Amino acid sequence: MMSLLGAPPRIVNLGLDVFAAELGRIGVPVVHTDWRPPAGGDPRLAELLGRLAAAHDRIARANAVAFDRLVNGEPALIDCRPAREALGLADRVVLHAGPPLDWTRACEPMRAAILCAIRYEGWAADDAGAQRLVERGDVRVEPCHHHGAVGPMTGMITASMPVLVVENRRFGNRAAATINEGLGKVLRFGANDASVIERLRWLAAEAGPLLGAALRTTGGIDLRTLMAQAVRMGDEMHQRNVAASSLLARALMAPLARAATDGQALARLAAFVAGNDQFYLNVAMAAGKALADPVSGVPDSTLVHVMARNGTDFGIRVSALGDRWFTAPVNMPAGLYFPGHGPDDANPDLGDSAIVETIGLGAVAMAAAPAVARFVGAGGVAESLAATAEMREIVHDEHPHFRVPALDERGTPAGIDVRRVVETGITPMINTGIASRNAGVGQIGAGVVRAPLACFTAALEALAETIR
Amino acid sequence: MMSLLGAPPRIVNLGLDVFAAELGRIGVPVVHTDWRPPAGGDPRLAELLGRLAAAHDRIARANAVAFDRLVNGEPALIDCRPAREALGLADRVVLHAGPPLDWTRACEPMRAAILCAIRYEGWAADDAGAQRLVERGDVRVEPCHHHGAVGPMTGMITASMPVLVVENRRFGNRAAATINEGLGKVLRFGANDASVIERLRWLAAEAGPLLGAALRTTGGIDLRTLMAQAVRMGDEMHQRNVAASSLLARALMAPLARAATDGQALARLAAFVAGNDQFYLNVAMAAGKALADPVSGVPDSTLVHVMARNGTDFGIRVSALGDRWFTAPVNMPAGLYFPGHGPDDANPDLGDSAIVETIGLGAVAMAAAPAVARFVGAGGVAESLAATAEMREIVHDEHPHFRVPALDERGTPAGIDVRRVVETGITPMINTGIASRNAGVGQIGAGVVRAPLACFTAALEALAETIR
To answer: In angstroms, rounded to a whole number, what is the distance separating the alpha carbons of residues A394 and A388?
Structure first.
């Protein structure tokens, strides 16, 4: 007690910063802690969190199981086949990104892409005919996630499109995504002209079959090692995939050379792969779904296993609640625009690609990729470290395999916990491309967006009902 | 004056730290500056530095010219051809790394490699016969640097070996290096068994011609862009080349596919390239020489344009002094060893690969590659930043193209200045492989080594004679 009183007071301020500011003004040293009441002081949410707190130990055990499933899966790229074969996808079905979407609520680029996909398949000759098929229900429009797949931006998948197949060898489950089309006018961003369809036909007729033949000779390419290596090389694997794309291209060279029967076809595929730094994004997404699917259905687990957007709604799925969607209106991304474009042209947030944030990559791994923070207008090294530090507040733990040299080998934050999101009010940050809100234009920029809190509060309500 | 005296004294301590330590002990805040007398207080060197200081403006202008030549060259990988064609290399000549080396002073792995290279060329049937050729002068042993080339470790080049050719398109000069053999038992580390020769024959008969045919169709691959990208991906391009190797492999895929007439030969080359994360090292070295050669011969410039080691001597060349060597005994590297090996087995420092430190990569760029600092036993993020900060003390400026995301886009230190090295006593740090001191073993580890100060003091003497 004597020693306690023998020194001047040392002051820690919690919460409102006006006290700290005032003490600072008169020269008194003060440590300010940015404390806020849980759940922003909302009594209903605080009560729900309190109910879950009573089951804390049970939830902790469940989340440990779910986290282990999420981070210790063993994804391998094993094949490339038409969606018809790989996913059992029927004709006259168009898969899209995000949670279920009624045609009447779909945004412009989503509508344009759906109609273009129908024309590509030859189910209609023009957009008007295609739209009649959709409106009559003669073409069904369903989420990729309901068919074992994920798609970037609009996320279009139809039966004849080749999809890359990832097997999670720890659990035996598979997931798929289309071949990334590259930049410029591409279907996933809502472009819909003849060049889009021509590229899709080449992918189906030449590139996909050659990739598939090569992959089937490899016995599977170990993606966990490749992705861990890419994180060490500055990829967060959402906005930046140059390392993963190059590593995969290098790994594919010899199998492609062995599988190719036509040197010119091989050269065309090689040039296509080499010309697209985002080639790996779709592989990362398929790997993400293959890793996250086994997290679904762990009783009492509050970890998120899907985040996805359809341009209208943002949806999440939570482990204990299986495949139930919790949705809220999507936010607008903030970022940098290509010349001639700006925020007024931007479509709301879009795509299944937030699966990479769900598994501990993308914006949550920004510390691995300070160049991305700069690219999306979010600052430099300090800001990239801060982004990852903030995301650490809402996850279960650090990823044991995705380790960041700039963090002295600490892992990326992984296993988003619904409780932590609601309690802190910190919503998952997502790196994203920005599509034009107008059909036929394509990508106009890149940036960062937040998942809407309302998905997580809705999920918390359901968790409090379920975990008793 | 009143305001100066109106506050308590603020203390800065220069030089000996005992004063600072004592003040710290009694609780007085003190800023300690680790000042040391120039050139370690050596009066002779201080006098030489003083003489050069009289020509400061002239030297500054010359170094600006030399620095511009060093950092703004435009290296392009244009070809792969036998050294006979690319370098005009005669039969019965063996090129080695480092400054000129008398056979009697050569270390074991260097001797083993020279004799193996002679057997590979068929100039002798066994080591004894090969050694007689060297001792009689019937085979000449000369530095790579005297023939427009560079070689890693022992640096062996003979006439039939294919070399990768880099053209500096800003100046029209060319430089070359062999194809990296991969890891394990390889000629450059002094291994010399049948497997070494078999691989060399495959490189000459199949891999080299295919690479050459592909490269000649490209019009040249821009290496400045590729290397700048690789620095952003965690390569310092001496110890770590995984990014540059992958980017180059990806860029070569389509040209190789177009050039190949035999799918199996293409597959063998692709597997070889994909299996070697250090494939790019030799390309970086050839690019380094192509970038550094134009720096030779700028009157009054004190910048270094060559650092090279032959396992016995370390040699440097300085711009104003053209191609004159300044040598001193090489140091021993310190680092980490493969299981079963240790410092007692290590050969002294070896190889032309310090050309990458000469152009602003390797250990001087450690901040770009914290994983390397860890790999060579030199710490983590803080130590990698400190290494680059220390090297900044002895260079002309920061590289305008090799920029480091972890440094918020600052460039790597480039243009080692003989004056700064002698004045500070800070010698260039070099990342290096460690060869066994015994013939036939190969690589036993990797680490860090310092250039010997005596090369720089000798060069300073000559500069003080030349610049008047």
So the answer is: 10
